[in-house]
Design goal:
Elements lengths: L3 H13 L2 H8 L3 H15 L4 E3 L4 E3 L1 H25 L7 E7 L1 H18 L3 E7 L13 E5 L8 E6 L4 E5 L1 H7 L15 E4 L2 E2 L2 E4 L2 E4 L5 E2 L2 H9 L5 E4 H9 L4 E3 L10 E5 L7 H15 L5
Parallel strand pairs: 3-4, 3-5, 8-12
Antiparallel strand pairs: 1-2, 5-15, 6-15, 7-13, 7-14, 8-9, 10-11
């Protein structure tokens, strides 16, 4: 008979690419994880992993079985949550990932407050500007910018009205002037960062795409916001990331007649069956918080 714990260790070993890493995560010995995988392989009569002294990867059979293992555990989890009911106390672990800037400066206090309202809930908060793979990474939901172009995911809108804005500090504008058209950006240092794993150096302003460049680059979008506050150049940021700075006049909006591209914000999860009571209540909470930030 297949053990539920063995399925969980199989999924985590596949995601982490290591029995040792899966063992550390589960507070087990590596040998215990290896034994669990062997039991599962005996029950299925297939080899799930190709092992060498230096690497661990799924076999073709392992790749084929992985979605089934995910589905089994998710069905069991959903059944348990259904027994509790929508109004039951939120318990267990809720794992959320978000972009660095949004996560630190907006979501952090909101999620802290949400967790205080549900003291039996454990919250794990991961910040990264790299897009998480919700089928393999240890997260339940992701807060993401941009349209949902992956039919495998379910995207629930949080701030569909959000868009990008061009900003610089008053000190920078006083020192270097302000661009009058998008083409003028070629004369200014632009602050660059990664977007979906690529350097974001093609900016869409008023329907026109311009190639920009600059001497400063970071894989952390919050660093770019801080550089703009320090007067190091011009940034093209989500309105949500800089709205507080604009309101406090720490940053100025440039080229207001050339609006930036849409950047809707959504809560994303792999499947509607994974919208647990905790996810559902988190979504309702965040949607209310973001509505208060909508630009007039």
């Amino acid at each position: 008979m297949i053990r539920i714990d063995d399925l969980g260790l199989f999924i985590r070993s596949a995601a982490l690419g290591s029995f040792t890493a899966a063992a550390l995560e589960a507070d087990l010995l590596p040998g215990q994880v290896a034994a669990a995988i062997k039991r599962l392989e005996r029950e299925l009569d297939v080899r799930l992993f190709a092992r060498t002294t230096r690497s661990l990867r799924l076999t073709a059979e392992g790749e084929q079985y992985l979605p089934t293992a995910h589905a089994v555990l998710e069905t069991l989890k959903q059944g348990k949550e259904n027994l509790r009911g929508e109004n039951a106390t939120l318990r267990g672990v809720l794992q959320v990932t978000a972009p660095s800037d949004l996560g630190r400066n907006i979501l952090l206090p909101w999620l802290t407050q949400f967790r205080r309202q549900h003291p039996e809930l454990t919250l794990r908060f991961f910040l990264s500007d790299q897009m998480a793979n919700l089928f393999r990474d240890p997260v339940d939901v992701a807060i993401r910018y941009g349209p949902n172009e992956d039919a495998n995911y379910v995207a629930l809108p949080l701030a569909p009205w959000n868009q990008r804005v061009l900003v610089a500090s008053p000190e920078y504008v006083q020192r270097c002037g302000s661009p009058q058209t998008p083409d003028d950006l070629s004369k200014h240092p632009c602050l660059l960062y990664l977007q979906n794993g690529r350097v974001y150096d093609k900016w869409n302003l008023g329907g026109q795409t311009v190639q920009v460049s600059g001497p400063l680059f970071s894989d952390d979008a919050d660093v770019v916001r801080r550089w703009s506050l320090e007067g190091e150049g011009i940034a093209n940021k989500s309105w949500l990331d800089v709205s507080a700075d604009i309101a406090a006049e720490r940053l100025l909006v440039l080229l207001p007649d050339y609006p930036g591209e849409a950047s809707p914000l959504s809560l994303v999860c792999p499947h509607r069956k994974q919208i647990s009571p905790a996810v559902s209540q988190l979504y309702t909470w965040l949607r209310g918080q973001f509505s208060a930030l909508e630009r007039s």
